[in-house]
């Protein structure tokens, strides 16, 4: 951000002599490269809307530029305010820097969501042949394939992907040039225009100067919108991990969590679902960070919201926590997740769910009567088919066709 403004000033006004401009440019590059990171000790928890951080940057750049001028034997000096902060206010520069950081983080989170979505969608096809019990309200309902279960999970993150993509358009505006209250005083228009172009060139981001600078300086609701987008990803992570905790539990055990640590210091035959609990805990924590952003975004007064440093802190936390949860599930859990087909099949036979697949052929009351006659679990598919054939007028071929995974888990093409 500083590099864009200073280069614009030099381009439009030729304010600094060649030796000064050379030292100033080098100082900025050293800050960008991280070579002077130890000179920035300030936390984001601070009053003043980021003034302390802005002055920290101004002073470090000026001090380093002056060191370089001394080394060259040049008597000219750079001032932290009149030079490095020229035509700027914390109220337009700090939010611009925040936008750059959070836009980059949003791009990264979007890719993390895409990777999880792709991993889930791949398993939709891989497990399309595995018929299992579909459950509603924690009760056995109708047959479903394991592939359809994975596909439903993928759908959540497909929506997250597009929500985040659309948010990029809303957060790409910056208040650069608006100075203290959005009026632009005392920045020259040509410098502001040149700085905007330089900012896009340097960052490679589609940033645009807001067409309503007083609004952009005063209000931070776009960060609340971003927080809601991140929060939605976290909420879907809670749903996904909650489902997987049930499927990998001792009660169901249809999926197996990888054993990555001793299950207990006293229980040897136990596998703790640590990846799921880790990702779920991160998702809960990220939601709290996003809620803090929403609260802080409401707290502006008149022409400024002074809590932007706090907003940035909580958004960075949310990005990190949600991103880590996504990577944990994509890279660590899913590749090692065990599918226990024998257990899935046993539960399917024991549940009488398959009887419900005969509803188009027998009607509600006919299926209910079969269940009354045989409340015990079936030991095999053949036993179930024989029972239905013996107690109805259906032929064996009709029953087996109705119980085919493709038929039992899709639209009915023809009713008997």
């Amino acid at each position: 951000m500083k590099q864009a403004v200073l280069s614009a000033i030099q381009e439009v006004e030729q304010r600094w002599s060649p030796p000064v401009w050379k030292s100033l440019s080098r100082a900025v590059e050293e800050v960008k490269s991280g070579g002077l990171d130890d000179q920035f000790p300030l936390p984001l928890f601070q009053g003043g809307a980021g003034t302390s951080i802005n002055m920290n940057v101004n002073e470090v750049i000026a001090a380093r530029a002056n060191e370089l001028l001394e080394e060259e034997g040049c008597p000219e000096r750079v001032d932290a305010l009149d030079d490095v902060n020229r035509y700027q206010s914390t109220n337009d520069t700090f939010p611009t820097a925040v936008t750059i950081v959070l836009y980059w983080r949003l791009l990264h989170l979007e890719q993390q969501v895409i990777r999880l979505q792709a991993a889930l969608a791949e398993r939709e096809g891989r497990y399309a042949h595995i018929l299992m019990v579909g459950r509603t309200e924690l009760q056995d309902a109708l047959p479903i394939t394991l592939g359809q279960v994975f596909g439903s999970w993928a759908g959540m993150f497909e929506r997250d992907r597009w929500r985040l993509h659309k948010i990029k358009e809303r957060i790409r505006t910056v208040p650069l040039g608006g100075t203290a209250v959005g009026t632009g005083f005392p920045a020259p228009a040509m410098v502001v225009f040149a700085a905007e172009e330089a900012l896009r060139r340097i960052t490679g981001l589609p940033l645009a100067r807001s067409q309503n600078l007083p609004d952009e300086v005063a209000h931070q609701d776009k960060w609340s919108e971003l927080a809601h987008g991140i929060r939605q990803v976290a909420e879907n992570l809670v749903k996904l991990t909650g489902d997987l905790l049930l499927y990998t539990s001792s009660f169901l055990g249809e999926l197996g969590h990888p054993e990555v640590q001793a299950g207990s210091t006293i229980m040897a035959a136990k596998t703790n679902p640590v990846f799921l609990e880790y990702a779920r805990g991160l998702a809960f924590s990220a939601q709290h960070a996003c809620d803090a952003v929403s609260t802080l975004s409401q707290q502006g007064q008149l022409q400024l919201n002074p809590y932007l440093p706090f907003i940035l802190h909580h958004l960075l936390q949310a990005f990190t926590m949600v991103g880590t949860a996504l990577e944990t599930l994509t890279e660590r859990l899913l590749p090692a997740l065990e599918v226990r087909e024998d257990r899935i099949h046993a539960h399917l036979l024991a549940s009488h769910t398959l009887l419900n697949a005969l509803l188009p052929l027998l009607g509600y009351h006919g299926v209910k009567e079969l269940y009354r006659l045989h409340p015990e679990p079936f030991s095999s598919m053949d036993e179930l088919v024989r029972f239905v054939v013996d107690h109805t007028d259906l032929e064996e071929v009709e029953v087996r066709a109705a119980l085919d995974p493709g038929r039992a888990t899709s639209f009915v093409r023809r009713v008997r």
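Residues 90-126 form the longest helix (37 residues). The mean pLDDT is 95.
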